[in-house]
Amino acid sequence: MSADTPLMKDPEPRAGTTAPGGELIRLEGVTKRFGTNTVLDDLDFTIDPGKHVTLIGPSGSGKTTILRLLMTLTQPDEGTITVDGQRLFPAPEKQVREVRKKIGMVFQQFNLFPNMSVLRNVTEAPVQVLGMSKDEAEARARELLELVGLADKCDARPTRLSGGQQQRVAIARALAMRPQVLLLDEVTSALDPELVAGVLDLLRDIARSTDITMLCVTHEMGFARDISDKVLMFDGGRVIESGSPEQIFSEPEQDRTREFLGAVL
Amino acid sequence: MKWDWNAVRDFMPHFWDGLLVTLEAVALGSLLSFSLGLVWTLLMRTPTRWVRWPVGVVTEFVRNTPLLVQLFFLFYVLPEWGLTFSALTTGVFAIGLHYSTYTMQVYRAGIEAVPVGQWEAATALNLPRQRTWTAVILPQAIRRVVPALGNYVIAMLKDTPMLMVITVLEMLGQARLYSQQHFQFTEPVTVIGAAFILISYLASLLMRALERRLVR
Predict the structure, then answer these.
(1) Given a cut of 80, is residue A11 above it in pLDDT?
(2) pLDDT (tens digit, 9 = 90+) per residue, B96-136?
(3) In whole angstroms, what is the distance from residue B144 CA to residue B129 CA?
(4) Which residues of A touch B145 (CB under 8 A)?
(5) Residue A223 β-bridge partners
(6) A72 touching B (Cβ < 8 Å)
(7) A98 in B contact zone (CB under 8 Å)
């Protein structure tokens, strides 16, 4: 990737960039229940800026819920979540919006807006939320779409694209908001097997060439090993083991982790 | 009984007058019911009970009383309170209001059919609430409900003869007037019957074309 891609560190600093060394995301005593089912159980962890953290574990272990909490798509029953020093629940609407500006999310089902062209999917939020001019937003969107290999699809409707292409548009759409944190929620789970590699390669590029903090939930263990600084193994709403990818994948300490990796690898 | 082409020819000028009034009533009634229905739907989604409750009561009431009674009420009772409108204005308002209580349910179904992921994507992009509605949710919801709204246009067309009771001379009113003056019923009533079929059919073609354009 060349040095002048739109992803490289911006000349102007992002709003509210954390001082180096400080933690970016902190969860303290976070509990989330759905009915009688406790999805997250008194969870604590922190994520430092610029780190790539992968959440692994069996389905229903609460990984996706963490991303949804950070994106404010759902609320915790107990505990506090702070992002860049700002508290999320409870917080006034204005503060929630400030925090959301720092976070982008890519969904398992893409969730592109089918009533808009690919280009407008990418320009809509920068124009409406960041107050960018339409021309500037379009110029940036075209650069991002080129980066994800879809420069020729600007005017297409998302529904005309393959799953892999749609997911790459969704990644461009999230990046267009210049987030400090990118949440990736099983982004290849809904894709046909032959389309998975293209999306993962793109994410590897982004992980390598930017300083965006990444938090991903994935079942692609090879990808997790490649990009992660840290891997958290979830089970029953708790982190049962965490460490570097080498540690987790090669010499896990917990039987449950070994069992899980044995089943998916 | 024999068919008299001269009666048809004599009736035609009155027919055109009536047709114009019928089309006007349907067009304005549709516009009113489409916009008012959307307003009801959105009001029913506000968080405050004090808005939802009165809107719910009023729309239930309107939906569950006959259009004919509403026409009588608006035309003969409101003037007693000093509110007087022309017969056609009253008719358009009554049709629009009555059908808005049906279109509101159509819109609600359309909005609920928009996948929750669309709301989530809008939240993740931090779109303002109003923008989420106007740019993301409503365009998708309305696209889904065009066929259902089209059916209500045809239903409204078929209800326009009721305006006759409040002295509006739409097609049936013109036919009745002509019949009573000339004692010839067959020709004028047949002409307007054919006109209703034709208009319904054209309207359904138009709706289908619109649907194809929207569902791309």
Answers:
(1) no
(2) 999 999 999 999 999 999 999 999 999 999 999 999 999 99
(3) 21
(4) none
(5) none
(6) yes
(7) no
